Amino acid sequence: MSLDHDTLAQFVASVRRFVDERLIPRESEVADADAMPADVVEEMRKMGLFGLSIAPEYGGLGLTMEEEAMVIFEIGRAAPAFRSIFATNVGIGSQGIAIDGTPEQKARYLPLLASGALIGSFALTEPETGSDAGSLRTTARREGDSYVLNGTKRYITNAPHAGLFTVMARTNPDARGAAGVSAFVVEADAPGLSLGKPEGKMGQQGAHVCDVIFDNCRIPMDTLIGGVEGLGFKTAMKVLDKGRLHIAAACTGLAERIIDDMLAYAVGRRQFGKPIAEFQLLQGMFADSKADVLAARALVLDAARRRDEGEDVSVAASCAKMFASEMVGRVADRNVQVHGGAGYIRDYRAEQLFRDARLFRIYEGTTQIQQSIIARSMIAEAHAAAGLPG
Q: Are residues 147 and 249 both part of a single domain?
């Protein structure tokens, strides 16, 4: 489904107003309290932000990837914690079900996720397996008409608030790597499921992560996503391709916001009798930042459009995520430098956004993992072109 041009433009404009009028003014409040205000979350629900990517038949807006990117460019202008509270429902917390779930799983969970009545979370990373997802150790042992889960998931976004987890677990201990991994949808009140304490983080206060612990957690057979064992890793990769484009769009939006802050400060701050914006060394930072953000936007939109057309965009998504996450880090660093001493002081928010931006280079696959994905594909293409075995 795709919105008509006018409807999309109106929705994007309303999101931009929401960011400017409701979110940015409350960034300090959220950072200091390390909590998301209930009234803001309720406004997000009413706007449909929890259901951006979920099909209309399940109560969502059913946006295409390009349309979703346009919305996230705007939401991304606010501190990332605001996006995080609903983003798992839009991406990793719902898409495993939306893409590979059974009709019954979709009917049961997608309406609740789309409305925001249920927060979804994606439980893949473990204490010993982060980037190497194929080596995960959480097990799902079949016992009669149930599966029994055992293991620990780490740094799980929105876990303290989640009512539903998409869990990757090994159903076949004899299968090496990803082949023995299956995906499950697990409700938070399942017996044997517990949570660790929320982690203290460098940045993104208000967005919470913690361990999810499975201790003989018994779940029904019909919680196996798609009803087929051994496809969990494929489901995870489908989810992550989309999630990487979403993150790249968020990085782009945040970089655009930081550039606005940078210019506003430089135009108003005077040294040596004139605004510091007039100094050429700072102008170089402005120009580099503008080129960076335009390049990131172009990468995201190109990959999003190609995904909407049905192309395999695994490499393009990795390129977009890698470039955009590194880019926003550069822009955030320049912003601190332009602010000088004020950039190190919390009241100016440059330091907060610098810390917030740092996480983007790590989650949804680190920069180094994206480099590996891209390079492996390039090498495989070169082998094929030369008629060599892959």
A: no
